[in-house]
Amino acid sequence: MIQVHTYESYEELSKHAAKIVSDQIRIKPDSVLGLATGSSPVGLYRELIRMHQEDGLDFANVTSFNLDEYLGLDPKHAQSYRTFMNQNLFNHINIEIAKTHVPSGIADDIAAMALSYEQAIRDAGGIDLQILGIGSDGHIAFNEPGSDLDSRTRVVDLEEQTISDNARFFESIDDVPRQAITMGVGTILEAREIILVANGEGKSAAVSDAVQGDVSTQCTASALQNHAKTTFILDKAAAAGLNI
Ligand code: F6R
Description:
This protein is of the alpha/beta class. It has eight helices and ten strands. The chain has one domain: Rossmann fold (3-Layer(aba) Sandwich), CATH 3.40.50.1360. Strands 1-10-9-6-2-3-5 form a seven-stranded parallel beta sheet. A three-stranded antiparallel beta sheet has the order 4-8-7. The two termini are 14 Å apart. Residues 36-40, 67-68, 133-135, 139-142 line the site of fructose -6-phosphate.
């Protein structure tokens, strides 16, 4: 059963999500966080930066693992998820960059990289708190419709809808990579706690499918119904399709 918390605005949902993350870090300073990119968590990251700068929230012992990376993009590329994380969070807090992990989109042997990424998560003790967004097609990480609900870290083809949703970050839609490396649904479900942030009416159908639809590979976020501790943190527009 997915818990749902709904807020008036994006600012409020971001603050609430940041409070959950900061409580986790204060209770366990060496927490292992799972992190997402995209627009949805930017407000949450902004609030974490404020908490670090103004309230002394300490990331010195935190380890992080990101969900995904575009295949073929160098970490230094302006649109890589590594660059996104550095710019939107890591450069502004005291996390050790060596303890931040983003899958490599340019490894010579991507399959071996995927296995070692999973091993690194296990070696770190598993993910304490995973932050997710949701795609308008119901994806979590880049687990597009049709992905197995026990899938692991691997290379995937992006759906046309995801490519067009993400084209806003690139000069042209032709520049959006067609493939990515992503943690699997099974990898994500092993996190001890999961929060999913979503805002805007463009997410309302995916949110209601995930929370109230059948558990199905057609909406990989629906697999979260089988997770012991998952909370969706929404604004009113993203929650509009729910019968609550
Ligand atoms: C990003 C990720 C994706 C996004 C989703 C929503 O690391 O894994 O699943 O969370 O595509 O993206 P935004 O937040 O940009 O709408």
